[in-house]
Amino acid sequence: MKILSAEQLSEADKISIEKQGITSEKLMERAATLVFNEIHKRLQGAPIPVKIFCGIGNNGGDGLVVARHLIQHGYHVTVYVVNYSDKRSDDFLSNYERLKEVTNDWPKLIKKENDFPDIDTGDFLIDAIFGIGLNRPIEGWVAKLVKHMNDSQAFTLSVDMPSGLFSDKVPGEKAAIIEADYTLSFQAPKLVFFLPETMDYVGDLQIIDIGLDREFLAGLSTKTYLINKDSVLPLYKQRKKNSHKGDYGHVLIAGGSYGKMGSVLLTATAALRTGSGLCSLYIPKCGYEIIQTGLPEAMVLTDPENDMVSDYPEDFDADVVCFGMGAGTDKKSVQALKKLLETSDSPVVIDADGLNILSANMELLGLLPENSVLTPHPGELKRLIGEWKDDFHKLEMVKAFSKKHKVVVVIKGAHTFTINREEIFINNSGNPGMATAGSGDVLSGVITSLIGQSYEPVVAAVLGVFLHGLSGDISSRELGYEGVMAGDIAANIGRAVKDLFSREMKDQEN
Ligand SMILES: NC(=O)C1=CN([C@@H]2O[C@H](COP(=O)(O)OP(=O)(O)OC[C@H]3O[C@@H](n4cnc5c(N)ncnc54)[C@H](O)[C@@H]3O)[C@@H](O)[C@H]2O)[C@@H](O)CC1
Ligand SMILES: Nc1ncnc2c1ncn2[C@@H]1O[C@H](COP(=O)(O)OP(=O)(O)O)[C@@H](O)[C@H]1O
Ligand SMILES: [K+]
């Protein structure tokens, strides 16, 4: 699914109005009626106080349309106009007039702090103050109103965007922003909804298709995508009936150290669960029995060292190598990674201590085979590329890094971002149950396995991250967030693949 900028969305508005021969007021009516429908579906006529805060632009206009429909359906509605200026938009004004059709209660104007209404925790708030038109931070009494709404702890639904969020930049640290419980956003997701610094304001997100011109939307170019089931289904390669283990890749996983053999065990398990034909591990001697007992399906080669890897078997014929989990950063392990990079010309996957070794020995970056995949969490990323000012700056820095070193970078997090040169793929599967030791090791195994099965590295990363998250979702459904362990995520990868094809789940998602 494409992620669009505010400019692209405004342009899509204009074109759709022209091509569909409708007025902007009609488009507002259509969009806001869909918002009303969603609210009505959930509230089912409940007699709770609904307080709608409308700005004076088109986001406020949406709020007025929603208000009209709610009043018509018998809800207990109070409409507030957040009167921060006198420049009301045309469609706001016409919908302000149209409220007369359904009520004699004129909206209450808020012009200063004294006008703020009391808000009870049990109220249902609709935030239609600002949408994609916000062009500077909210200030003065409007900022205090935002705080008043947030402090109330009342359930808050934002129309299009939580007011105070910009679609294309991170607000300042002390900015006033509505903390929505639910956001109903028009037509396309916005990048800020997924960034670590701003995603908490959004609450649960639902994108509403307001029927903008399909042809125009299809032609819009973007380099940023939200990845859901529909995006990954076409990437998946069906197995051939007439095939054998040699067709599904031989992966080699190198790493582990004394006390940290579980990490490579998890990676190798995940690789086999993702369908690798053959899986070998290159580990220190101390791990031999652990792996042979823990994963009889895997083959094991040992390093001359007992406690860490210090070397690399250069004549070993693997389709893809993954290096780093549990490896430590000893000088000897630096040599091991160096030798791997010097001998390999096909893409490798580097995770965990492999990344820490790269950060401390930047000259090794030049040895990375083209299209290698690096899978840092934010801490590892900082060591690798340095500090960023905010999440947008981080994305620019990672794009530059990806271009310079010709690698794919997977920034792990609640929404994992896969960055390939200019392109950004934002993952939309997964849950907080996956915040548990070793789940990153599992992800490396999944991605490595897919590369071994001949997926392009960037495709392996995007599909692998999605499957890993989906497997986490299946695991949490069964075990609860707290109960999920990394091994469960590895164990459920096959179910995640099956789940990709289940229609029922797909329908629930949208
Ligand atoms: N296709 C779509 O996306 C549609 C969008 N519509 C709505 O239109 C909204 C955009 O409307 P507008 O462009 O009128 O903008 P907003 O309603 O988001 O903002 C209102 C105006 O306030 C001013 N402003 C910005 N920041 C301010 C600040 N900090 N303090 C005071 N004033 C400030 C700006 O001049 C802006 O035009 C969308 O978010 C959506 O809710 C719908 O009505 C119809 C379809
Ligand atoms: N709140 C969350 N929601 C979704 N996915 C998460 C969440 N927290 C962690 N994850 C996923 O779990 C994995 C954690 O990886 P990492 O930080 O490397 O952990 P470890 O080093 O213990 O393996 C990543 O793939 C990340 O995207
Ligand atoms: K809003």
From TrEMBL:
Superkingdom of source: Bacteria
UniProt-annotated binding residues for K(+): N59, D127, S163
Cofactor comment: Binds 1 potassium ion per subunit.
UniProt keyword Nucleus present: no
Chain positions recorded as (6S)-NADPHX binding sites: 58-62, 131-137, 160, 326, 377, 441
Catalytic activity: (6R)-NADHX = (6S)-NADHX; (6S)-NADHX + ADP = AMP + phosphate + NADH + H(+); (6R)-NADPHX = (6S)-NADPHX; (6S)-NADPHX + ADP = AMP + phosphate + NADPH + H(+)
Residue intervals of the YjeF N-terminal domain: 9-218
Cofactor: K(+); Mg(2+)
EC number: 4.2.1.136, 5.1.99.6
Binding site for AMP: K412, G413, A414, H415, T416, G440
Cross-referenced InterPro entries: Carbohydrate_kinase_pred_CS, CARKD, Nnr, Ribokinase-like, YjeF_N_dom, YjeF_N_dom_sf
Quaternary organization: Homotetramer.
UniProt function note: Catalyzes the epimerization of the S- and R-forms of NAD(P)HX, a damaged form of NAD(P)H that is a result of enzymatic or heat-dependent hydration. This is a prerequisite for the S-specific NAD(P)H-hydrate dehydratase to allow the repair of both epimers of NAD(P)HX.
Protein family according to the UniProt entry: In the N-terminal section; belongs to the NnrE/AIBP family.
Protein name: Bifunctional NAD(P)H-hydrate repair enzyme
